[in-house]
Structures are given as C-alpha cells and as structure tokens.
C-alpha cells in the first residue's frame, strides 16, 4: 500500500463529489463517453480500495466486514474508511485480526449511539372550556 495511491484515490473522489454537487441533476446530460469514463474511474478506485483492505485485513476480518456490509453498508464503509486512514498514518503495523475489528466496531458503536428522548404532550380535551 503506497501513500501516493491513496492520495490519488482521495483526489479522484473529491473531483467526483465536486462534479456531482456542481452538476446537480445534470447527470443525464453527460455524453456516453464521459459517463463511461466516470464509471471506469469509480470501478478502478473501488478495486484499489478493496486491494488495500485485503492487504490490511486478515481473511476472518474481511469475512466479518463483508457480513456487516450486507446488513449495514454505510457502517461497513465507515469502518473501512477508519481502517484505511489508520493504515495510512502508520498506526496499523500488522494485519487487523477479527478480534481487533470487533473491538473497533464496539468503539464506533459506543461513539455513535443515539440518545432517544421521549416527550409526551397531552392534548387538551376539546370539550373543556377555560372561560
């Protein structure tokens, strides 16, 4: 895993996001060649991402992450992002095991738990008059 590759992926993703925000609903107005180029770039970036994850994660950890992605794709994507960032910063020296992935998931769950608050508002009876 090389830092220039990760930086290139980031730059490409930023350009895609900027294009999506700038274009708004103009996606259908792109010509087929631009559409194909965009799809190829996205596919290539995703392949590089998966290749880097396969180098960082053990096979058991990859299987667990794949099962999580079936149920909650956005959560799995977030965990992948955290792992890739940690690897880029040099915080991960060896392959991430399933146990380490589980502890990482628990930490993320503790940070993102939503606090629910229930407020009960009683309606006044329509027939009551305060006169």
TrEMBL record:
<feature type="compositionally biased region" description="Basic and acidic residues">
    <location>
        <begin position="36"/>
        <end position="48"/>
    </location>
</feature>
<protein>
    <recommendedName>
        <fullName>Double-stranded DNA-binding domain-containing protein</fullName>
    </recommendedName>
</protein>
<comment type="similarity">
    <text>Belongs to the PDCD5 family.</text>
</comment>
<dbReference type="InterPro" id="IPR036883">
    <property type="entry name" value="PDCD5-like_sf"/>
</dbReference>
<dbReference type="InterPro" id="IPR002836">
    <property type="entry name" value="PDCD5-like"/>
</dbReference>
<dbReference type="GO" id="GO:0005829">
    <property type="term" value="C:cytosol"/>
</dbReference>
<dbReference type="Pfam" id="PF01984">
    <property type="entry name" value="dsDNA_bind"/>
</dbReference>
<dbReference type="GO" id="GO:0003677">
    <property type="term" value="F:DNA binding"/>
</dbReference>
<dbReference type="GO" id="GO:0005634">
    <property type="term" value="C:nucleus"/>
</dbReference>
<feature type="region of interest" description="Disordered">
    <location>
        <begin position="13"/>
        <end position="48"/>
    </location>
</feature>
């Amino acid at each position: 895993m090389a830092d220039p590759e990760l930086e290139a992926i980031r730059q490409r993703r930023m350009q895609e996001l900027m294009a999506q925000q700038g274009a708004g609903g103009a996606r259908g107005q792109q010509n087929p060649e631009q559409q194909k180029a965009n799809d190829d770039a996205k596919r290539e970036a995703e392949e590089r991402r998966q290749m880097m994850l396969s180098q960082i994660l053990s096979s058991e950890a990859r299987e667990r992450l794949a099962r999580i992605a079936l149920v909650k794709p956005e959560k799995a994507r977030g965990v992948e992002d955290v792992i890739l960032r940690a690897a880029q910063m040099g915080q991960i020296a060896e392959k991430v095991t399933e146990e380490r992935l589980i502890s990482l998931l628990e930490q993320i769950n503790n940070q993102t738990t939503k606090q629910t608050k229930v407020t009960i508002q009683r309606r006044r009876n329509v027939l009551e008059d305060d006169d």
